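anyone seen this seq b4? input:
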Amino acid sequence: MLFFAGGLLVLSACGYRLEGGGPVHPGVTRVGVEVFTNRTAQTRAGIDFTNELIREIQDRTDTTVVDPANAAYLIKGEITAITFATLSRSSTETVTERRVRAVVDVALLSPDKKVIWSVNNFSALESFTVGSDNIDDESNIRDALEIIAERMAERLVSQMSANF
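predicted toks r here
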């Protein structure tokens, strides 16, 4: 917040920061991101969640993403669950809308492999229309999971880089 006090321009720190810029975590200028371990039946989820996190780090921070083998700092993630729930039906036998929920654990490790930031049971939801056939349904599920991966990456980077 900007205001004038006694003829001086004063900037009040309120915990917010402009989006973009700054490291992913205080002091972390280079980081490796391992492919998320995937404990679910959704085969591409680990790759999709990892790619979204890398994209978000590159787009919103000054931290450089490097090969995990060459990184001092390392982000490790695990998709612990992807579950589905019925939201609406057109009849007792026909589901028209479902909700998918993904749950992840993520940790940022220091050069000596100590956890310097982590979050467990981090989740996000998205609803989708049930397809008329298996191909449409799988496509809708995949689209919903991509939206979840993007939202999670945004929130993870925001929380990781918060320096209140």
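Strands lie at 2-5, 8-11, 30-33, 37-38, 64-66, 73-89, 95-109, 115-129. The chain has a mean pLDDT of 87. kinda curious what u guys think
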